[in-house]
Amino acid sequence: MFYIQDSKKNWVISKLQCVEAWETTKGKGIIVAVLDAGINQKHEMFKQDVMAGHSYVIPQGTNTDALHQHGQSVASCVRAVAPEATILPVRVSDASNSASAMNIAQGINYAVNNGAHVITISYYNIAGVKEVKAACEYAASKGIIVVMATGNSGKEISLDTAENVIIVSGSTILDTIWGKSNYGSCVDLTAPCERVGLAAITPNQYGTGSGTSYAAPTVAGVIALIKSANLTLSTAEVREILLSSCNKLLGVPTNKQGAGRVNALSAVNRAKSGNIDSPPTFEATPQQSIIERILAAFKR
Prior knowledge:
Number of strands: 11
Number of helices: 10
CATH architecture: 3-Layer(aba) Sandwich
Strand content: 15-25%
Oligomer: single chain
Number of domains: 1
Helix content: 25-40%
Shape: globular
CATH topology: Rossmann fold
């Protein structure tokens, strides 16, 4: 077990009940494409279960080494939640962490054509761009889910997305919405994004960070667990399980949390049982929130 997969060191693991979910599956056999700034495979978290990928920024080709910490961080969120999923690195952003819509569109197409089961993208406000939307629709035609982050401006947004795109806002350890998370009717669900455990670009080092960039790959990791738990599920069924197994956050508007905060254990249990149509019964209770506030105060 790597550092950020330890529930005592990374609150995301305990909040999503990942350890319990791992008793069923750790995501083996599922390919998660990470469209970002590349990864450093010398880091212990990425020495195995990483495919040869592609770069759409200079140097182009098969070199997908990390050009920016952002890519390493995003990939580590996937691996933290789905330890045995395979990562397909697709480098679409440069050393300044800037990614063009064209590079992202090409990256989506590459991921689709190279076996990805789910794609995660942590760049703001690109879901509705013509080229990106067309690429997402191509992914949809192949049954592939694309997960995207809302962004970190703390404002309301509106996105015209393809049907297979899942938009994720960011939440806190207290099951509230992170103050800088964008929101809107396009939000499908929320996931942890504040002070989450991350792998550093330096080999075998770790740290923490905040941003919806980390919420999206966390959800992608949960999707990998769902799919691995039941390979017969359709894309629509995976989406239904993901959303209907969320924990509804009390007092939080729907346009900020969507279906609620993702829950790995609940999702995996429903996937394993094949119980797709039952209504959600999970809720973050006031008692839980009070206890977590006390614990969070001691951790500061």
